[in-house]
Amino acid sequence: MSGAQRGDGARRLFIGGEWVEPAGGHYEVVDPADESVVGLAPEASPAQVEEAAAAAAAAFEGWSRTDPQERARILDRAADVIRRESEPWSELARAESGAPTAVARAMQVGVGAARFRRYARGALEPVERGLPPQVTAAGPMGRSAVLGALEVRQPVGVVACITSYNNPWANPAGKVAPALAMGNTVVVKPAPQDPLSVFRMAEALAEAGVPAGVVNVVGGQSAAVGEALVASGHVDMVSFTGSTAVGQRIAEVCGRTMKRQLMELGGKGAAVVLDDADLDAAVAGIGTTFSFYSGQICTAPTRVIVHRSVYGELVGKLAGYAAHLRIGHPAERGTVVGPVISAAHRDRVEAYVELGRKEGARLVHGGQRPAVGPGGGRTGGSRGRGFYVAPTLLADCTADMRVVREEVFGPVVSVVPFDGGEDEAVALANDSDYGLLSYVWSRDAERAFRVARRLRAGGVGVNTVGRNMEAPFGGFKRSGVGRDVGSYALHAYSEVQAIVWAG
């Protein structure tokens, strides 16, 4: 789109329907696979963030009163644009996030388009619900009457959407699309590691005809950008995906003015493998921690709690699974495990692996930095370009180890054996500050569901790591506040109003 970027490819901010030169200049977005420069991202100033929030506030009245059919048409057209540009935008997502090409195409850009399509339908979902009438006797409040009541869902206002780096399409689309469908306006602040895709999303919405100020995108590496957005008096709600530590800081700021919050925070998913489990199915599910986004996903089953009777066999199967995963450049056909997002994060993951060894865990697989050659495959050496971490399996872990208790956010699985029955397994699974997604594997469906209901997690997968995309998503404890996905996202981005009348 004209004006979206300069002749040198540097991106501009999107504020009030205009592409604006960033006050803080630009910084380089680096491909985590080979450390090349993908593009130049804009660095907003706090004043520009406030300008974007003010633009969203000014646009709110008109957008919130727009016919839902028109909101649906705009979201549908945005999905059409994303589908049309799927190939180049998938390549961009691959380059800036490090996801393998197939994942970037299907799970990032593809899911992003699907979410705009889903919430085009969502814009047409009923927002009013009649409640049973209530008969009141005469009294101090007046004569006897029959009181009718209506529950009405109203948009919250201006929503600050602060997104994660592990999926630069699905995550922001999952915030922006339902927020717009409900009649809110948004200011999006993408993760600094891979923000370029989010500016493409803004292009799609602009082409689709979204009115000026309804969607704004600011960004930057400085923490001051996010801080200014969260603190803005124009912002009514903050939707954040990221670490629990950052979420806690955001919540403190939101609490000062009682801003609404939707928080998807950290996870340390427990995978309970009972003695009657299908071990091959369990390994296939747990193994996604090694491969899917290179473990950079809060829903990963990273903490395996397995009955002693099948412990050795499960550990052996997991080691074999990890050994057959191809580590390589994400653009190369056959690559399963790509890089993590940055050198700093690679170092963090490696530090956790070493910490686990010092704590007494047995390193079964991984633990050495893989080298990826120019053709994408492993060179066998210890040096190479890109931020790669080998799939790592730690066995003989105990519940008090930091590598078991803290979110590593990388391709690292820790295995904890247990000797007793369901009570011990449940106690170990629930012994965590987190409670996003957990999992149970058992051939006995009744037993698996019995255990699932006892787990303190926002979601539980029974013999699967798959997700139903209409089911509520969110966490217990320090894994978050609120629920989204499906119609639950529409509820999350709305306030409930009661209208009562005398009949």
UniProtKB/TrEMBL annotation:
Residues 19-499 form the Aldehyde dehydrogenase domain. InterPro entries: Ald_DH/histidinol_DH, Ald_DH_C, Ald_DH_N, Aldehyde_DH_dom. The keyword Cell division does not apply. GO terms for molecular function: oxidoreductase activity, acting on the aldehyde or oxo group of donors, NAD or NADP as acceptor. It comes from the Bacteria. Pfam families: Aldedh (PF00171). Keywords: Oxidoreductase. Belongs to the aldehyde dehydrogenase family. This is Aldehyde dehydrogenase. It comes from Streptomyces globosus. The lineage of its organism: Bacteria, Bacillati, Actinomycetota, Actinomycetes, Kitasatosporales.
